[in-house]
Amino acid sequence: MAGHIQDRWYKEEKGPDGKTRKVKTERYGTGMRYRARYVGPDGTEKSKSFPDRQKRLAEQWLSQTEADMARGQYIDPRAARITFQQYAEKWVTHAPDPNTQASMESQLRLHAYPYLGSRPLGSFQPAHIRDWVRQLQENGVRGSYARTIYSNVRAVLSAAVDDGHLPRNPCAARSVRPPAVDNKRVVPWTPERVFAVRAGMPERYQAMVDLGGGCGLRQGEILGVAVDAIDFESDTLHVVQQLKLSRSKPVFAPPKGGKLRDVPLPGPVADALRAHMKRFPPVEITLPWKVADGPPVTKRLIFTGPRGGHVWRTSLNEEAWKRALASAGVIPEREPGEPYAESRENGMHALRHFYASVLLDAGENIKALAEYLGHSDPGLTLRVYAHLMPSSQERTRKAITAIFG
Predict the structure, then answer these.
(1) Which of 79, 177, 300, 347 could form a disulfide linkage to 227, CB 3.0–4.6 angstroms apart?
(2) Where do the domains of the chain lie, and which CATH numbers do they carry?
(3) Residues 6+ apart with CB under 8 A from 244
(4) Is the dihedral of CA 119, 123, 129, 135 positive or negative?
């Protein structure tokens, strides 16, 4: 049924002479006069009211609405009234895992809801996003953390577009720029620094440095290495799990992104693991799988704490790792009663950067390195480590020197 404009102040009646005439209704002079009525794509009648002397505006609005339906760009007014927070709170429940959900909930609650939460989805304009990004920066929220928050807001609005709550994502406007990220170049450690840090680690944790620097594992993957993941015969390490926290409780889980991989196991690293397991026999550890209430899984971990349980990442980082950094001169020694200095760039992830730099210097290609590091996109590997790749001139010199030298 085609839409039409209803005049709520007048109605048509037939007079004694049989002619149609307009007469006042009981609503005459009160409330909105015109009601634009139409049937939406879902088959239900919808309407919008307009004041006296605005019939032309009502007709224009109805024509635009019918044109939007014909183009497939129609937005139900009721759906458009749902607020950003109402929609986002449902959206985050579809996160891939509890840890990701908790992180998204925290970021949106602290940095998005106070500014965007009460705004109806249908009212979003690029200016609202520009103002919000500026507010983030003024509040000191910058860098990759701000970019992550922005990405979550953009994803919420993108899903809202798909669900018919707004016609287009304001974050996609050319005038909207995401928060800037400080693209600091990775500066890999030298072999001397790696060995110095290893020497400063407690003996039961020294082989962690070998796995990080010699196989490129992430910290959680190192903590989750089990005996059955080490294939000494084929010189291969199967990276199939990590040890992580799910809502503050330790669990076993697949590696980041669910990407299982096999990594070459160099001879010196294999020797270090054999010596470690002889000195510190593996221990069976039972933890939930993936989530805190997941099914129990038992693994013979090669790295355990002094009391025989799994290694807690916080104590490892704040005590053993930073003490080793200080002993190697990477960070200053701490004052009595004070914590060690913050040094995010010198976390255990520095061992992965070292691993990548060694492989690239040896001529390994980006695709293979991405596979060993567990990156789903070789483009990410290239963006992070491109500056570490030997130049074509250097490769040429090495190649010719190897022949004629």
Answers:
(1) 300
(2) 4-74 (no CATH), 84-172 (1.10.150.130), 191-388 (1.10.443.10)
(3) 99, 220, 250, 251, 253
(4) negative
CB 125 within 8 A of CB 80: no
Instruction: Name residue 321's amino acid.
Output: W
Q: Say yes or no to pLDDT of 1 above 60.
A: no
Do 257 and 376 meet the contact criterion of CB atoms below 8 Å apart? yes
On the question of pLDDT at 268 being above 90, the answer is yes
Is the pTM higher than 0.90? The answer reads: no
Taking the C-alpha atoms of residue 228 and residue 221, their distance in angstroms, rounded to an integer, is: 14
The confidence band for 208, taking pLDDT boundaries of 50, 70 and 90, is very high
Q: What are residue 244's phi and psi, to 5 degrees?
A: -140, 180
For residue 363, report the phi and psi dihedrals to the nearest 5 degrees: 95, 10
Q: Which residue type does 353 have?
A: H
Whole-angstrom distance, CA of residue 238 vs CA of residue 376: 17
What is the rounded distance in angstroms from the CA atom of residue 23 to the CA atom of residue 18? 14
Residue 165, Cα to own-chain centre: how many angstroms?
23
Identify which has the larger pLDDT, 143 or 78.
Answer: 143
Looking only at Cα atoms, what is the longest distance across the chain? 117
CA–CA distance, 13 with 199 (Å, rounded to integer):
99
- The SS3 call for residue 355 is helix
- Rounded to 5 degrees, φ, ψ at 336 are -55, 130
Please give the Cα distance from 306 to 304 (Å, whole number): 7
Q: Assess contact for 92 and 101: CB atoms under 8 A.
A: yes
Q: 264 to each of 215, 348, 352, how far by Cα in Å?
A: 7, 20, 14
Chain centroid to Cα 402, Å, comes to 45
